């Protein structure tokens, strides 16, 4: 056997016939590493796991395979014993990949057919599952994916984090309507065959952690003979993808970003457990706000990554094309004004059709400021979550003609420490943006929110902090 896929298939069949269970991801990693003559520290590093856990799982695996290959089986002699016992040439069609069409249609939630290469099945040959293998998927809480605008770069980054870096906790945050759910659904389409279970849950109704964990365990236990005690046990046993949407709903309004509601602080411990425990699964958080503990976990390099989802670039032209707008030479200016935000552009494009018969040049010529119209209630819903101090700083930033160097002293009522903390919180809400000017970082409020704030009569807009 020279092909690692053949070896994994052989081991999977052997263990299944003996125990009724398939190889786990960590067992596959151990066998692959041993075949490649890697040491346990390297296998642990590749698997994003501790060396002690790899050794513990390896000892159990060698014991299971010892009857077939010899009682003194270990990672050092595994390859030689297997080659000696199974001197079989590589199967003639090992280079050919079967193409499997996978349909996911659960509770009227449909993901388009995906053709993906598959070289082996998790089921024994000729079993029903081997003819149509697919993950167990629950997308009942997911929104419908109607339109998806090209985000090749962001998708590539997410796939690299999941498939290669084996990141355990990913946060995708950004303004409401920026496309967080859409990119997560598109991601599922492209990587679903890498997982055994995929589940999407919305926190819009603010379920307690206990309720959420019960739902997750019920879902994961569908194909388990014996239920496991905790969610983390299922994440270790199988490769699972969990998406939690609307995470901002478990955070307080009127406080700095990412502070949990009373009775919901245990979510923070749960997220930390996912990031720091050894397993082969992935939890994706979708939120308007970046959770505070995520920044700490990232700083500690705890298998945690964050994607700040921003507006579209040239890809946003597809929105304007779908809306039938004219004056294509002015589209880039329209996209710039509205930050490439897909939801905002859809709304403004409808306004241009209603008022100017689709003429972008007429729309831009008739305004000396950013027109908000139907955007106002959307912007208000985002701003009403701010603390009083964040509102104060936001109005002050909106009154500034240029970006602000926060390292410079100023006549402010807030201390420098408080001011910096508020700027950081506004950044975690995607309301404040950083621009590099020489060696210094400057900050300004999102231009669309700036226009909204300036349109409101508020004495704080004229007051220096």
From TrEMBL:
Domain vWA-MoxR associated protein N-terminal HTH: 3-84
Origin: domain of life: Bacteria
Biased composition (Low complexity): 121-135
Annotated region (Disordered), positions in chain: 116-137
MF annotations from Gene Ontology: ADP binding
InterPro entries: HTH_VMAP-M9, NB-ARC, P-loop_NTPase
Domain NB-ARC: 154-248
Protein's UniProt name: ATPase
Organism field: Aerosakkonema funiforme FACHB-1375
